Here is the input.
Amino acid sequence: MEIQNNDIYDFYNNIDEDKRLKRTKVNRIEFLTTTYFLDKILKPNSRILDACAGAGIYAYYLAEKGHKVTAGDLIQKNVDVMKSIQEKSNLFEKVYKGSILDLSQFEDCSFDMVLNLGSFYHLIDGNERKQSIKESLRVLKPNGIYAMSYINRYANIIKYREMFVEDFTLLNEYLEKGFHEKNKIFYASNPEEVEALLKQHGIQKIHNIATDGMKFIIRDTVNELSDTDFEKWMNLHYKTCEDKSILGTSEHGLLIGKKL
Here is the structure.
């Protein structure tokens, strides 16, 4: 099953996904937070499927840690970046082009961890969102770790506030559906929705994390921090990023759970 939304292909063919999480200190928060929590929970030499790996930033990080990583993505440009990494390092078990909606090339219960770090919030169709979870869990071992990122609906009102206040009809549509007519690339949910959905699919929550915290509110302040003060900020962020009052302000959330 292939994702049919052509806007997604156009979007990723026109951005540099490889640099998105490195561009500024605020952009780095998402990557640093995600890897901080994955490192805490992963057992050594885990077999990992990064099923929507982008240009491979997480896949490469985990492979360098000694894990056995298979990485795939829907966008050929991203796959080419990962293949170039593989040619130089030979770190991955496999690099492939494919959709998280169809992981039939992999056997049931064959991975210790599956990463769904992007596809969920690009699937406007609810059945496709559920399919992305079902396929991920099919190839995940019992008691394996599932990590799924999502976009917070209310946090993005801060990001797009100027557009929304010019058109309250658009804002109401977004609040009702999680997307709107001017942008059908991203689906925005909320922490409660994601927790309930994964519980329905037999996932026991371990962490629900505000991966970039109060990014929209503190962007300029954090970007101006010295490296030493940025490290202090990150240590504070790690302590607070599971607080529900902060989780709702974070553009990205990350739910990590265990397959029962």
Remarks:
- The CA atoms of residues 155 and 178 lie 12 Å apart.
